[in-house]
Design goal:
Layout (H helix, E strand, L loop, with lengths): L1 H15 L18 H23 L7 E5 L3 H15 L2 E2 L3 E2 L8 H11 L2 E8 L4 E8 L4 E5 L2 E5 L5 E4 L2 H18 L7 E6 L11 H4 L2 E4 L14 H15 L5 E7 L5 E6 L4 E5 L4 H12 L11 E3 L7 E2 L1
Parallel strand pairs: 1-5, 6-10, 13-14
Antiparallel strand pairs: 2-3, 4-5, 6-7, 7-8, 9-10, 9-11, 11-12, 12-13, 14-15
Organism: Candidatus Uhrbacteria bacterium RIFCSPHIGHO2_12_FULL_57_11
Protein name: POTRA domain-containing protein
Keywords: Membrane, Transmembrane, Transmembrane helix
Length: about 325
Amino acid sequence: MKSYARDRHSFRRMSSGLGRYRNPYGRPVKKKPKTRLILWLLAGGGGAALVIYLLVFSPAFSVLEVTVSGASAGHADVIRDITRRYLDERIYFIVPRRNTFFTAGDALQKKISSALFLDDVRLERNGMHVLKIVVVEKEPGLVVVSAGKAYLADRSGLVLSEMTPAAAGLISRLALTEFLTSTSSIPTTATSTIYTAPRLPASTATDTERHPVLFVGGESRYSPRQQVNRPETLQTIFKSQETLKEYGIGVLAAAIAADNALEMSVRTNEGWDLYLFSGDKLDSELDILKTALTSTLRDRRELQYVDLRYGNKVFYK
């Protein structure tokens, strides 16, 4: 009996060391499977997957249409192409950029601004599926022709964009003809000449009717944001045109001397030339010209030139 009790208590002591008493003679109890918990986990995972699909991959929250306003036809096509390629990207090769929650406006604006020379780019949402891109283009001031190509530039001389090859070829021929026939008395040392655009046929009359044409000699080729001439020199030309326009006088050409970038000669449509300096004294020179045009130079039928390069005096012939 003692040995039996000693053995029985020894089992108890052994099992108590494990923290819980186990009857060595009892049957093992089987645990019930946690079916309810598994079902809840499956339902929760499926619901989360459905929500992720609807929010990220479903067309219900995707940009399906892109509209562009404020841009010319050529620029609008470029903007649409940039936007399409941007929306087709995937974040970490998984999340589509086309999703309205992941379309980063700043990144798209930078892509458009780096491709085109614009004043402003703004993104607007027109509902869940429409992305509206509103741009403000830089205002062209002149058409630059060089090496058989034509470019639109602003009034400071920065190139905005290249024109179509057909328009470039036509403008080059017209500008070259104007250069050969209308500037015989302009110094041959001129490095560039600016022209008022001849009237073109209706099919090609576009920016060249509104802006003067700058014909640049040599084989220079330009790209957007490149400077074609000094801004102050171009402003001299534009100011001279505006002043002469007040008196019904048009400008055929304006040439800049190669040896002195501040010296400029202007050929008017009345057949006489105007010589002046660009720079700080330009406004005073144009004021002197206005006074002369309303007094001593009212009759300009025999006028050959007006020279404003010498102080506050007017020399004419």
